[in-house]
Design brief:
Blueprint (H helix, E strand, L loop, with lengths): L11 H25 L8 H24 L6 H27 L7 H15 L8 H28 L6 H4 L18 H31 L5 H14 L2 H11 L6 H23 L20 H22 L4
Helix pairs in contact: 1-2, 1-3, 1-4, 2-3, 3-4, 3-5, 5-7, 5-8, 5-9, 7-10, 7-11, 9-10, 10-11
Length: about 325
């Protein structure tokens, strides 16, 4: 369904107060339902109908309150509230399925787990960002963590003198001859190619960190234009980690240079798209015709530095990839 867009007098603080009350009501109704069906005797038909009406009312109220949040408050925020709401509704559905299929003897482990699942889903509302700026910062934090993991995995594999896949592909016992499959080893040229690719990956995470700092300092949620810019930055940033994952996978032996050339270009393009809104320079990104409010002249130094790092590593990778091709 579509959100209520009549938000001329929309109050975000009132929305959160109402939403939190609705979440608390669902949690309480789920607990009541679980307790009633934890031991005999069964509730009477009349009491059962009241319980059903009560739990239904609580989930409908929660769903309705979620739809009060207009997209004009920020798409990133609305998506996170939606996901949290869906988790609660799915938790309640799972609890009902367990109650309907469990014998009425005692509180089963499955029932305890399902009830706890509803509580956990409700508790996550306390951790949700309160505005679109916070929602975008959470997205960036997730992206940074994924990219850092990819970088650390490659660094760890490179630091190992032996085959990085030996613990997966091989069960060598002490005293046995080492496996001779060179497809699981990096050549010297492979390692040279990996260097600038690592540089591109590090430039990506540096860009995300700088963008995070800029949004923390300058991110504004008071105008529709600035809210939309924050959402655009979030959408562009979400392209970074898939590109890094693809690049990292191509770096494991045996190195296949053909897809690596394509993925290196894509990774560079994504990193540049993330940088461009801050640089306020022409580009083909979704922000090509307007500058982002989060980055001004004071940020141009690091933007230009990271652009230089991207260009340097991309050219170096190009040169190495085209050797003897």
């Amino acid at each position: 369904g579509e959100p209520n867009e009549s938000d001329g007098t929309f109050s975000l603080s009132n929305f959160w107060d109402t939403l939190n009350r609705a979440v608390k009501a669902v949690s309480q109704e789920a607990t009541k339902l679980s307790l009633v069906f934890s031991k005999p005797p069964l509730p009477s038909q009349q009491d059962g109908e009241k319980l059903a009406e009560s739990i239904l009312k609580s989930v409908l109220t929660l769903s309705t309150v979620y739809y009060w949040l207009p997209k004009s408050q920020g798409v990133s925020l609305r998506r996170q509230v939606r996901d949290a709401t869906v988790d609660v509704l799915e938790g309640v559905a799972q609890l009902l399925e367990v109650l309907l299929s469990s014998p009425l003897q005692s509180l089963t482990q499955e029932q305890l787990t399902s009830t706890g699942g509803v509580w956990s889903a409700c508790d996550q509302f306390d951790q949700l960002p309160q505005d679109n700026k916070g929602a975008v910062l959470e997205i960036l934090s997730t992206q940074i963590a994924v990219v850092k993991d990819a970088i650390e995995e490659i660094e760890q594999a490179l630091a190992e003198a032996h085959d990085p896949f030996s613990d997966v592909l091989d069960g060598d016992q002490e005293g046995e001859e080492p496996r001779g499959n060179q497809d699981t080893y990096w050549s010297e040229r492979d390692r040279q190619v990996i260097g600038p690719c690592q540089g591109l990956m590090k430039a990506s995470v540096a860009c995300l960190r700088k963008l995070t700092a800029a949004i923390k300092a300058n991110g504004d949620v008071t105008t529709c234009r600035n809210l939309a810019q924050l959402d655009d930055l979030a959408d562009i940033s979400k392209e970074v980690s898939p590109g890094i994952d693809d690049l990292a996978l191509c770096l494991y032996p045996p190195l296949d240079y053909t897809p690596l050339q394509r993925i290196t270009h894509l990774n560079c393009n994504v990193t540049t798209l993330t940088l461009t809104p801050c640089a306020s320079q022409p580009s083909t990104s979704v922000l090509s015709h307007r500058s982002s409010h989060v980055c001004g002249e004071s940020q141009l130094t690091w933007v230009q530095f990271l652009e230089g790092a991207v260009d340097h590593n991309l050219q170096k990778a190009k040169d190495l990839l085209h050797q003897d091709s």
